Amino acid sequence: MRVPTLKAEEKQGKCDYCRRESQSLNSCSDCRKAWYCSNQCLESHWKTHRLYCLDPIELTTADRLALAAFTGSPPRDPDVLKDFGFLRAHVPSSRAYLFDIFRYIFNQGGIDPRVVHQFRLDGTLVHCIQTFYEAIPEASRGECYSWFLRNQHLLMPPPFNDISHEVLDDDALQHTLVVYWRSASDTPTEIKLRMQAWPKKSNRCFQIHSLLLRAGFRLSPDRPEWLQFGFCGCKSNAEETKLWAAYLKLVRTVTFDQFYHAYTKSSLPALFSAHGLPVTNNFVLDILATRLAGRNLSGISSNLR
């Protein structure tokens, strides 16, 4: 990409890169808002200045994330949130830690956003973040890196159809309704109005059913259902896969009312067993059965993350 030159319109002040006082600063020829004492300073500052100089449509999502990091304001751009894992981080503290990871990379590390952009495109962003932080003394890495090591999945290409950032669309609502109520007569608007009157547990059950019916989709720890339906109790990916498969078989066997009744009565383990799908993991049983019935799962979430 072309680096602008200096425009001959001298003024006195500090160079925007080296910060030295000069009697003959010249402005960036493109934006005429930044002032430099030499072309060398302009070229050295370009990796940062370009974020403010270029037309916004030329900026990548990594560029826009860097701008957010420089200002200290969490990103709001939908594409930035999607590309860098924020939409998959449903817990507010997770979003804050994720932002801290990038703030340190851009602010203290001085990493060029173009490099971060390429890492993301190459699918190597997680590895490169680890390499960057491992080169820092352990005492200086901060809590965000410890969090990152437990939540790398947020930035990894998902091994399934990732819809974790989506609200259930109209087709998904109708499909789920057809499967369990055998009726397609209700419009999406009518379905949504009906759902607004449901208790929270009904909506949770409807949500997990809708996700289960999405071909190729699997839960990841950033989904609230990962906690609500016991996946946080699994000790390995293999156990999570087995539990997911059991749920998938169960919802295709029982009615929605049977599933909902078992969930509200903390008797999902019994429902699994009744259909030849026993759950043997004690922690999962604790979550699904009476010992954790009615408890706020946020405490579990904080311990697991």
**Helix fraction?**
40-55%
What is the ordering of alpha helices and beta strands?
EEEHHHHHHHHHHHHHHHH
Helix count, per DSSP?
Answer: 16
* Global geometry: elongated
Strand content: 5-15%
Distance between the termini: 41 Å
Low-confidence stretches: 159-168, 291-305
Q: Strand order, biggest sheet?
A: 1-2-3
What is the average of the pLDDT values? 80
Q: Could you give a short account of the major beta sheet?
A: 3 strands, antiparallel
Helix/strand structural class: mainly alpha
Number of strands: 3
Radius of gyration: 25 Å
Protein name: MYND-type domain-containing protein
InterPro entries: Znf_MYND
Pfam family, one: zf-MYND
Keywords: Metal-binding, Zinc, Zinc-finger
Helix-strand blueprint:
Layout: E1 6-14, E2 21-28, E3 35-36, H1 39-53, H2 61-71, H3 78-83, H4 92-108, H5 113-122, H6 125-134, H7 143-150, H8 170-181, H9 188-196, H10 200-212, H11 224-228, H12 237-251, H13 256-264, H14 268-274, H15 282-288, H16 298-304
Antiparallel strand pairs: 1-2, 2-3
Helix pairs in contact: 2-4, 2-5, 4-7, 8-9, 10-13
Overview of this protein structure:
It is a single chain. This protein is mainly α. Helix content is 53%, strand content 6%. It is built from 16 helices and three strands. The chain has helices spanning 39-53, 61-71, 78-83, 92-108, 113-122, 125-134, 143-150, 170-181, 188-196, 200-212, 224-228, 237-251, 256-264, 268-274, 282-288, 298-304; strands at residues 6-14, 21-28, 35-36. It has a three-stranded antiparallel β-sheet. A hairpin with a 6-residue loop joins β1 and β2 (21-28). The longest helix is centred in the N-terminal third of the chain and has 17 residues, at 92-108. It is elongated and about 85 Å long. The two termini are 41 Å apart. Mean pLDDT is 80; it is low at 159-168 and 291-305.
